[in-house]
Design a protein that fits this description.
Helix content: 25-40%
Distance between the termini: 54 Å
Shape: elongated
Number of strands: 16
Largest sheet: 8 strands, mixed
Strand order of the largest sheet: 1-5-6-11-10-9-7-8
Bound molecules: histidyl-adenosine monophosphate
Number of domains: 2
Structural class: alpha+beta
CATH superfamily of the largest domain: Bira Bifunctional Protein, Domain 2
Length: 425
């Protein structure tokens, strides 16, 4: 029988890799926690309508990539392709804005998009993100973008470019959309079928098209920045001013409309150089002042971002050093010692010492070999004599410790943990 394999584009995270994900999440918790962001966890499955109503029917994410399936009652459900829609649904459902006019949330978890898998692009991937509800002011955009910058710095990701744009609001975007539509209609013959449809239904989406012919046409399309109204222009200039004052370098890109329909005004992306090739957007987001209302809440402005954890980990490159092995390795000899060893190891762990045993048993030699492979700092061999006398020999294995590899010291079994700690220095 063929062995079963993981679903294409969905990856296992073995402990070393999972550890790197945890480190990224810990940096997020720290950077955003310090700024008042609390963690929110929403379901992985939502009603499909949540995503079509927020991200937009005409987007690739909803139209081509979403995993949609009927449940046993025929209700149409979807695996979440991103975190913002669920966060907004939860914000509205729990009346959060009524309790606090300014709400800051962060999240991390798996997302699902049926894209063509390649390096940095998967069908199950992990995002961490944040959403700030209740502030329309440019200070909110600047705080959020500044925190993403801070997060990337904390992670040690220095070779990153921030691109920034404004795509206007209800007052000025329709003007831009019309001029874009006119331009697209004039070039209809050169566009792909999708873009001809988008020209009529949602012209802005043509700007995300990857088809080379369309990209060539769009290179000459009108600029969204040129049609911003005074209020949107002022907002954008203020965001830029704050970022400069914060020392966050950026460039403006008037083609940056992003692939999701809910954005208004600010959009941004952080691009990493090197490693990632075409999938080099490590973090992205923007303002969405209409989405809360659209999903049945009040008129609550909001701004947020999400980063792909796989992409951050790839961009960071391999870790400088491997995870350290156990601080103590207990090697029992004979049945009484085996029985005692489990309890001795447990007691050492209770004091916070990383402690392992080779639960397969075996000869002293093979257990010591295991201790060595595990990278143990100290070993203690436990036989009948040690159990009777209550004294054991503590041996330093490698260079972790105050002594030299091979150094031995006799210590009381009852003071094993404190002796290891003292010997570790
Ligand atoms: P997004 O640009 O669709 O935005 O995704 C954000 C990030 O998720 C991307 O920049 C990328 O790093 C990562 N990502 C997306 N798709 C994949 C994939 N197939 N494989 C690996 N990584 C991927 C959003 O999702 C918005 N919810 C961001 C946001 C939050 N806007 C406002 N608030």
């Amino acid at each position: 029988m063929e062995p079963l394999r993981a679903v294409k584009g969905m990856n296992d995270l073995l402990p070393a890799e999972a550890g790197r994900f945890q480190a990224v999440e810990a940096a997020m918790r720290r950077a955003f926690g310090l700024a008042g962001y609390g963690e929110v966890r929403t379901p992985v499955v939502e009603e499909a309508a949540l995503f079509s109503r927020s991200i937009g029917e005409e987007t690739d994410v909803v139209g081509k990539e979403m995993y949609v399936f009927p449940d046993r009652h025929g209700k149409s459900l979807a695996l979440r392709p991103e975190g913002t829609a669920g966060a907004v649904r939860a914000y509205v459902e729990h009346g959060v804005g009524g309790q606090d006019p300014l709400v800051r949330w962060w999240y991390a978890g798996p997302m699902f998009r049926h894209e063509r898998p390649q390096k940095g692009r998967y069908r199950q991937f992990h995002q961490l993100g944040a959403e700030l509800f209740g502030a329309a002011a440019p200070e909110a955009d600047a705080e959020l973008v500044g925190l993403v910058h801070e997060l990337l710095q904390r992670l040690g990701l220095r070779d990153v470019v921030l691109q920034l744009n404004s795509i206007g609001d209800d007052a000025c975007r329709p003007v831009y959309t019309r001029s874009l539509q006119e331009y697209l209609r004039a070039h209809a013959a050169e566009l792909c079928e999708d873009c001809r449809r988008r020209t009529e239904k949602n012209p802005l989406r043509t700007l995300d098209c990857k088809v080379p012919g369309c990209r060539a046409v769009l290179a000459g399309a009108p600029s969204v920045q040129a049609s911003l109204c005074e209020a949107c222009r002022g907002h954008f200039e203020a965001v830029c001013g704050h970022l400069s004052a914060l020392g966050v370098p950026f460039e403006t890109n008037d083609r940056l409309v992003r692939g999701l329909d809910y954005y208004t005004r600010t959009t941004f992306e952080f691009l990493a150089k090197g490693e990632l090739g075409s999938q080099n957007t490590v973090a992205a987001g923007g303002r969405y002042d209409k989405l809360v209302e659209q999903l049945g809440g009040g008129a609550v402005p909001a701004v947020g971002f999400a980063a792909g954890i796989e992409r951050l980990v790839l961009a960071l490159g391999p870790p400088a050093d491997a995870a350290p092995g156990p601080e103590l390795f207990v090697v029992p000899l004979g049945e009484p010692a085996k029985r005692a060893a489990l309890g001795i190891a447990q007691a050492a762990r209770r004091t916070g010492l990383a402690t392992e045993i080779d639960v397969r048993g075996g000869s002293v030699k093979s257990q010591l070999r295991r201790a060595d492979r595990a990278g143990a700092a100290f070993v203690v061999v436990l036989g009948d004599q040690e159990l009777a006398s209550g004294r054991v020999k503590l041996k330093q294995m490698g260079t972790r410790g105050k002594g030299r590899p091979g150094d031995e010291a006799e210590v009381a079994l009852s003071e094993l943990s404190s002796s290891v700690r003292a010997a570790l220095g």
